[in-house]
């Protein structure tokens, strides 16, 4: 995540934290926990992937 210094600097200036990195690591931890416990991972994305067309017809 540290390969995006421009994003990091901007987010730290605007938000006081590197929010993109924090969000990605949180989702990764949730996915790893679901896999380790045999549970189901539920995405935090809204709408979920595959719910709407990605490109115009």
Task: Write a concise synopsis of the structure shown.
It contains two helices and no strands. The chain has 57 residues and is mainly alpha-helical. It starts with a helix and ends in a 20-residue tail after the last helix.
Topology (elements, then pairings):
Layout: H1 5-15, H2 19-37
Description of the structure:
This protein has helices spanning 5-15, 19-37. The chain is mainly alpha-helical.
Q: Characterize the overall form.
A: flat
Strand content: under 5%
Which segments are poorly predicted (pLDDT under 50) over 5 or more consecutive residues? none
Mean pLDDT equals: 90
Distance between the termini: 34 Å
How many beta-strand runs? 0
Structural class: mainly alpha
Helix content percent band: 40-55%
- What is the H/E string? HH
Helix count equals: 2
Taking the sheet with the most strands, its summary is: none
Q: Compute the CA-based radius of gyration.
A: 15 Å
Keywords:
single chain, 57 residues, mainly alpha
């Amino acid at each position: 995540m540290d390969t995006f210094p421009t994003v990091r600097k901007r987010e730290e200036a605007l938000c006081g934290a590197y929010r993109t990195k924090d969000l990605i690591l949180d989702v990764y931890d949730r996915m790893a926990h679901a896999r380790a416990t045999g549970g189901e991972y539920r995405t935090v994305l809204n709408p979920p992937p595959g719910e709407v067309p990605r490109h115009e017809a």
